[in-house]
């Protein structure tokens, strides 16, 4: 039986390697889609007899895949609560109009955060933020996504907990009776490599492939366009409450500004915790000095002047940019009255939109004709278009519910609005506790992430629709499809054969050459299996090489850890690369042409520095 088994091993290995080569070839030519290739791999591997169908599909229950999916949800929660928007605004403000500074701050921020938590998680959280920065800064997403993934990978070279391979190598040293690595033992190597990576990406940013600058949708109109279309500058007025005015310290209802033939209060601008807060107009709200009342003053004639004189209010102009500047808090939407709506044949005043939906009707069109005067007495007809004004969450609530009106269009600014901005502190609290739990190791990372997802949903920081929509299924399927290769290569003896060949070099080569060989072998394995699995396989091999030479195992262990993080060369080298593949619009060869040269740079730095800091 033994000879048969020995003879069968090369055949099994040849079949697995053939499938691997075929998959890599299809990745390289980008035909078919990468997630389709991953499914083909899962289907083909069981036919070799090396792994079963259940083992080929086991990636769908893999902890890392569930972890990545959960982190996508966490990232969506940070988007919906506006946290990522504020981080992006900070980065964009520091960068100004310089694309080079933008890449610098993005890579430094991603690397710093990833050094204390999962790099995969950081990338999942950063992706929507980077897409928003790309849109607002008119920068191609392809020029930012690869720097993001490279910085996240290099973060594994900064601290002991920066990436699982570091902990695996550290654990192998402890198992052998060595002291292991300290928390910052990786930093002297990671900082120079991060600096070189930033310079490298800035210098080559024009040669990075992927998605280009997207032109604005010509059919998507902005708030400024709608202000002009409905002539809101003439309809909407702003009344400031100066110090000592009669209106100050009175409830809004006492001003009697919402009765018949009186201006209708749409919103209140209040200078408070942050400039320009927008407050919903409630009858019991007490007016303060400095408040600005936003009203619908159409066709009020002298009534508006009389109200201003009586209460000491000062009229302010409404510029066309007023809505744009307050787009985070206040929005507009166009909605149609369907034939079966209960609003048909009722006046605008009768439908009491503010009472039921917290939205105000500030514009109306009968067919193509816009009503220029007062709206309250206008009778609504089937097919009429209403221009609604209010908070974005109220607009989206009407959009989701449907019935009385059908939402037709939202302005372009709606894409950058955080619908749950008031829950940002809760989102930060949940994510902070999740990160703290990861750092302290109080529970498995996947458990902590799932708990965070549940908490974010419970607190209203993310909707179920948003959570499911945030999961990049193409990236997840690609990761799942490539996971079975690790088991297949191990069972067929492919990994053992490579390790044995490397050990055979120990008696003939110098230690530096062996470091280079270990780096290259680790990088080669990382092309096809996860860098975590690569570290598990290569750490004992590297230390066996050190034992055969009778020298310190630390430089060899460090080389394995650094090489496992240097997975720059293909989109399947690391989940971090896979995540940015779709959003960046990359092809397989985009990673090859950028990643291979920098891998060579990293190799040179490692071979030059490791023996100096960690002597043989």
Describe this protein's structure.
The chain is built from 28 helices and ten strands.
Radius of gyration: 31 Å
Structural class: alpha+beta
Number of helices: 28
Spans where pLDDT lies below 50 across 5 or more residues: 1-8
* Oligomer kind: single chain
Terminal CA distance reads 45 Å
Number of E strands = 10
Helix content: 55-70%
- Largest sheet: spatial strand order: 3-2-4-1-5
* Mean pLDDT metric: 78
Shape call: elongated
Instruction: Name the beta content range.
Output: 5-15%
Q: What is the makeup of the main sheet?
A: 5 strands, antiparallel
InterPro entries: Cit_transptr-like_dom, DASS-Related_Transporters, Na/sul_symport_CS, RCK_C, RCK_C_sf
Keywords: Membrane, Repeat, Transmembrane, Transmembrane helix, Transport
Protein name: Di/tricarboxylate transporter
Membrane topology: Multi-pass membrane protein
Descriptive keywords:
56% helix, 5-stranded antiparallel beta sheet, single chain, 10 strands, Alpha-Beta Plaits, alpha+beta
Question: What's a quick, concise take on this entry?
Answer:
The strands form two sheets. A five-stranded antiparallel beta sheet has the order 3-2-4-1-5. It has a five-stranded antiparallel beta sheet with strand order 8-7-9-6-10. 56% of the residues lie in helices and 8% in strands.
